[in-house]
Specification:
Blueprint: E1 14-17, E2 20-23, E3 27-30, E4 33-36, H1 42-58, H2 60-64, H3 70-85, H4 96-114, E5 117-118, E6 125-126, H5 130-136, H6 142-158, H7 165-168, H8 178-188, H9 196-199, H10 203-215
Antiparallel strand pairs: 1-2, 3-4, 5-6
Helix pairs in contact: 1-3, 1-4, 3-4, 6-8, 6-10
């Protein structure tokens, strides 16, 4: 796979080394992560949501059961479904469009957990609105979980020596840089102009910041 801003780069369809031929592709999966030649996260999110939907349907009856408490159902969601969707999310560079897709998925699961609500006047059943779900679900939402994990991983990377490859690609340039997401997360908790790499050298200070990002209550 060839990744370049030059549209003419890597026009050869395959590479031959000794007696082996490697076909050129536009994307491939490595360690359950979809990598594309455009550094796009869209296909990765689609794949994770497909896996999450399959997992959701496998436990759908449990989430609808009247024999289980809502607390237990939320534990099922957070321990079985959520890890499937968020595998490798520390490296994601999300746009608002991808964030909305993830929230739509989570709200679908939460509606199954909390069930419908009856209208007081007509007695008809209706599904819960997003604002109501946000008020009823006290755990950090899926986007906040991603942001906190990304911040935690950023702390690990910032403490690496500069010759480490992970550190050197920290400021790579996909359409939205991963480090741009970190700065946006810092801005949400009032630390927009902070030297975050310097702060990350203190594990205790960084843990407090990660916790603040995780537990920020926003719609």
């Amino acid at each position: 796979m060839v990744t370049s801003r030059d549209q003419n780069a890597g026009r050869v369809h395959s590479v031959r080394i000794d007696n082996s031929t490697f076909e050129r592709v536009e994307e491939f999966k490595y360690l359950e992560t979809t990598l594309t030649n455009q550094n796009s996260i869209a296909e990765e999110i689609k794949g994770k949501l497909r896996s999450g939907n399959a997992c959701y349907h496998s436990v759908q009856k449990l989430l609808s059961s009247r024999l289980l408490s809502k607390t237990l159902k939320i534990r099922i969601y957070r321990s079985i479904i959520l890890p499937v969707v968020l595998y490798g999310c520390e490296a994601w560079s999300l746009t608002l469009r991808e964030e909305r897709k993830l929230r739509v998925f989570e709200n679908m699961v939460l509606r199954r957990i909390f069930g419908p609500r009856r209208k007081e006047v007509t007695g008809e059943w209706r599904r819960l609105h997003n604002v109501e779900l946000n008020d009823m679900y006290f755990s950090p939402n899926i986007v906040r979980v991603i942001k906190s994990r990304r911040m935690r991983w950023a702390g690990h990377v910032a403490r690496m020596v500069e010759k480490r490859w992970v550190y050197r690609v920290l400021v790579g340039r996909p359409r939205r840089r991963w480090v741009d997401n970190i700065r946006m997360n810092l801005q949400e908790v009032g630390c927009r102009y902070m030297d975050w790499i310097g702060l990350a050298q203190s594990r205790n200070s960084w843990r407090k910041l990660v916790s603040a990002v995780m537990n920020l209550r926003v719609p």
